[in-house]
Amino acid sequence: MVILQEKGYDTMEEVINEINLAIEDNIKNKEVIISIGYSVLKPEDQLVHDVFERADQMMYKRKQQLKQMGAPTRA
After folding, report:
1. 3-state secondary structure (DSSP) of residue 54
2. Structural contact between residues 38 and 4, judged by C-beta atoms closer than 8 angstroms
3. Are 62 and 39 a contacting pair, CB within 8 Å?
4. Rounded distance, CA 24 to CA 71, Å?
5. Would you tell me how many other CB atoms lie within 10 Å of the CB of residue 26?
6. Closest CA to 65 of 22, 16, 24
7. Which among 2, 37, 45, 59 counts the fewest CB atoms within 10 Å?
8. For residues 26 and 33, is the Cβ–Cβ distance under 8 A?
9. For residues 56 and 48, is the Cβ–Cβ distance under 8 A?
10. Which pLDDT score, from 0 to 100, does residue 72 have?
11. Model confidence over 6-56: pLDDT tens digits?
């Protein structure tokens, strides 16, 4: 988990895109592959769990995308 604020928050999407591109290169190079998800606190969130749940859903969606790109799966 990472909590971003100020400049870190302002560049969050750019940094995530760079990480995702590196992960996609890792598929081609048969290197370490991770799946990341993120979420932003919304005014309607009642619990911190709401934020984590959205990030978790995004992570699993990304995991499926990476598999479709050829990422290996665990045996």
Report:
1. helix
2. no
3. no
4. 8
5. 15
6. 24
7. 2
8. yes
9. no
10. 86
11. 888 889 899 999 999 999 999 999 999 999 999 999 999 999 999 999 999
Across 1-75, the runs of DSSP E, i.e. the strands, are none
Which residue matches tokens 């749940």? 53
Amino acid at position 73, single letter? T
Residue identified by tokens 């992960």 is 23
What DSSP element (H or E) covers 33? none
Token pair belonging to 48: 């911190």
The tokens describing 41, both together, are 């606190």
The alpha-carbon radius of gyration of the chain (Å, integer) is: 14
